[in-house]
Each structure stands twice: as structure tokens, then as C-alpha cells.
Amino acid sequence: MKYRKGFVANSSSSSFTCNVCGEIYDDYDSTYKDLCVVECTSNHIICDGHLLEPTKKTLKAMTRRHFSGKQVRPEVVLKAYTEIDELEDYQCEEYMVEKLLTSNRVRTRIPGCICPICQFDVIEDREFRQYLMKEHKIYPDMIKKEIKKKFHSYSQFYRYIWYNR
Ligand SMILES: [Zn+2]
Ligand SMILES: [Zn+2]
Questions:
Q1: Closest Cα to residue 48, out of 99, 120, 125, 114?
Q2: Which ligand has an atom closest to residue 46 CA?
Q3: Residues paired with 16 in a beta bridge
């Protein structure tokens, strides 16, 4: 299921959370750039800091995105590509931050190869739950029953799951 979690234009009631850390953003007059947030092509919205290190190939894809729909002379694109080719690997991230994340056009369509959710480095809770049901047939009702049987009180349960006491 794909859906947009935030950024409905001119909406006064929309806020969104980072799909990785849960940080809540409710400053809807700001752009992704102002908030230091990006959205990947699968609509995961994440803080800049969670992005994975880009390869040169990824930087070029982002560059294409940056120029797409604009009247740009071929030399300009070629110059950007040459600049990327000349980077050392350790400079790729810095290049992304300084040259590409300055563009909201780039920020709204980040390639999946640098999104930690698309790369399965992070799994969202609801997708984790859904996968457990689908693949392992573990359903909330079963678990609720088990918990009711096992614990006398919520505080006992809480201590068990968070502190293992
Ligand atoms: Zn975050
Ligand atoms: Zn993603």
C-alpha cells in the first residue's frame, strides 16, 4: 500500500512523522529543505540524517532529477557529471548534501537505494506486524490472549518487555 503521509498542499491539519525515528513535523508551511527532511520514490519520509551513503551512480540519478523539466544546456549536465566522476568515494555524501539536497525537487524523489526503509535496514512497525501475520501467522488476538494469561498486570508486562524483569 502506498500513500502519502504528509505534505498536503495548503492543508492546515496535516503533520507527518519521520518513518524511521518517529520525529513529528507539523510545520506545514515549510519545505522539506527547511525541515531537513526527504521523501523517497516509495513515499517514505525521513530525516536527512538517516540517508545511506550515495554512490556516484546515485548522485548522477539525483542530478538528473534536479535538472528534469528544466531548460538546461547539455554542457551544464555534463559538467555536473564530470564533477561527480572526479569525487573520491568519501566525498560523495558531502556532495549530495551540499549540491543536491539544496533542491526540493531532489528532496521529494530520493532514490530507494539510499533510503534505509527501501533497503530493509529499517522496518516500520506496521509493516513488521503485517509481515508477522502474513508469513508467520502471528495475529494480535493470539498475542493478546497469551499476554492476558501470562501477566497479572500491565506494569508486570511492561517491566518484562522493556526491562526483562
Ligand atoms: Zn528521523
Ligand atoms: Zn524508501
A1: 114
A2: 1
A3: 25
Ligand number, closest to the Cα atom of 2: 2
Cα 6–Cα 68–Cα 43 angle in degrees, nearest 5: 25
What b/e string do you get for 88-105 counting C-beta neighbours within 10 Å, with b at 16 or more?
A: eeeebbebbeebbbebee
Q: How far is CA 159 from the centre of its chain?
A: 31
What distance in angstroms lies between residue 55's CA and the mean position of ligand 1's atoms? 22
Check the CA dihedral 40-42-2-108 and report its sign: positive
Provide the CA 129 distance to its chain's centre, in angstroms.
19
Measure 74 CA to ligand 1 centroid, in angstroms.
36
Q: Identify which ligand lies nearest to the alpha carbon of 50.
A: 1
For 68-106, the pLDDT digits (tens) are 888 899 999 999 999 999 999 999 999 999 999 999 999
Q: So what's the pLDDT on residue 73? A: 92
Distance CA(85)–CA(23), nearest Å, equals 35
Domain boundaries, the chain: 56-100, 125-163
pLDDT digits (tens, 9 = 90+) for 26-74: 876 789 999 999 999 999 999 999 999 999 999 999 999 999 888 899 9
